Amino acid sequence: MLPAAGKRTPALYRELRRLIEAGTLPAGGKLPTSRDLAARLAIARGSVVAAFEMLIAEGYAVARPGAGTFVADRVPTVRQAAAPATIDDAAVRMPLPGTLGVAMADARTLSLFRTLLNRHLARPGPEHFHYGDPRGGAALRQALAAYLRQARGVRCTAQSIVLTSGTQQGLDLVARSLFAPGERVMIEDPCYPSARAAFIGNGLAVSGVPVDGEGADIARAVPEARAVYVTPSHQFPLGVTMSMRRRLALIDWARETGGWIIEDDYDSEFRYAGPPLAAMQGMDDSSRVIYLGTFSKVLFPGLRLGYAVLPEPLLERIVALRARSDRSPPTLAEAALTDLIREGHFAAHLRRARRQAQSARDGLLEGLHMAPGLAATVPDQGLHLVAGVPESVPDTLAVDIARKAGLGVRALSAMAVTQPPRQGLVIGFSGFAPEVLRDAASRFSAALARL
Fold first, then answer.
1. Torsion of CA 413, 416, 421, 426, to 10 degrees
2. Predicted confidence (pLDDT) at residue 273 exceeds the cutoff of 90
3. 230 has which bridge partners?
């Protein structure tokens, strides 16, 4: 059966191909004539002829002059026993207020970005018409190096930067380039689950490093570890800042053991009290820190641009892997982003984004404070907060209650590595209006109070 609406030729082609692959139309069998099939389906004969020609061109059918059109003798078949893989609807539906990883849509920035894109589309340079540098365009790397030196205290040049599609690709490139399967890396406990997934997915063994009020405690490191992944400026998920003595101890560990530090600086631009904290990479004089950042939080994930600042000994192998995996970053987005930074629009966007995020944070807190036992501290940095739950309510149960109330939260206990799981809720406040967050949090607070 064909769908009621839509173009007839591709619809008929897809249906005939499906029947052939399923074996319903057997190999070597004759297809109905184009005239007969057009009459039965009440469509134009030309649509049937065009569909037959598509099948013939792809080897699913053969035309025999004077005899008709037949299914080819050898065609691919689809096994019917195995159900097709499905994607969880939760991964594609619109996120609930409070969901992590949602960026703020700033109308002024989007208008500027559209203007900059149009500028480069109107007068496209030759770099858009051939495969570029796997490190990314030199202009953006130069602009980014200047920004990172000034804003984050990072030791870098354009030559030490590799542009990525985001932090996750940076982690994957590092894991695949530096370590052999079975080698051990350490990760903060509780952890950023996607980082753990990147390491485990590349066959690495993962151990947890306990996190307290000073951040990750490298004194608890396992001897055979090759690297440690940390979020020192704003630990995910707990939100603590790594103390200076812990930072120095971690750098000493890397220098003495030959290990690597992977510093994920995912949301350092969002600091609401005092100046931004300097990156740990800028304190390292032994070139043992790999620094990762992204534009997904500060602009929007759809841009698909991040970066890695790499020690010189690692550059060649990571650039070679980048070239093999996806050649180079998108040059058109690079060009617009370069202009956004160089012309001062990016700095102005950051100021607006901080104000929006702070208002959203306050709206979320206002709604959460209505429930007894739901303790939430006011974070002075980042785009999420951690709320404690009443002792009688497991955080996994609280997650279900929150979702039914229209608030997207994650269980802190699910982010444990090896330490006993802590109870709590991780809630984002980026990308949603303050009143939307307040209302969703109020509904959740009321539902929790009824328990």
1. -30
2. no
3. 263
Is 0.85 topped by the overall pTM?
Answer: no
**Angstrom distance (rounded) from CA 56 to CA 68:** 12
Q: Is the dihedral of CA 388, 394, 398, 399 positive or negative?
A: positive
Hunting for tokens 């953006």 — which residue is that? Answer: 140
Question: How far is it, in rounded angstroms, from Cα 110 to Cα 115?
Answer: 9
**DSSP per-residue string spanning 129-193:** GS---TT--HHHHHHHHHHHHHHH-----GGGEEEESSHHHHHHHHHHHH--TT-EEEEEES--H
Alpha carbons within 13 A on the beta-carbon side of 330: 13
pLDDT at residue 219 greater than cutoff 70? yes
What does residue 39 show for φ and ψ, rounded to 5 degrees?
-65, -40
- Quote the CA–CA distance of 222 and 324 in Å, as a whole number: 33
Using CA atoms, how far apart are residues 192 and 189, in angstroms rounded to an integer? 9
pLDDT tens digits along 134-144 = 999 999 999 99
Q: Give, in order, the Cα–Cα distances in Å from 169 to each of 195, 230, 304, 308, 409.
A: 10, 16, 10, 10, 25
So what's the pLDDT on residue 199? Answer: 96
Query: Which of 303, 408, 208, 117 is CA-nearest to residue 293?
Result: 303
Three-state SS for 378? Answer: coil
Rounded to 5 degrees, what are φ and ψ at 292? -115, 140
**177: CB partners within 8 A, 6+ apart:** 314, 317, 318, 321
Distance CA 328, CA 323 (A): 6
Closest CA to 188 of 411, 384, 418: 418
Range 219-222, long-range pairs (CB < 8 A, 24+ positions): 219/249, 221/186, 221/253, 222/184, 222/186
Tokens of 42: 């009440």
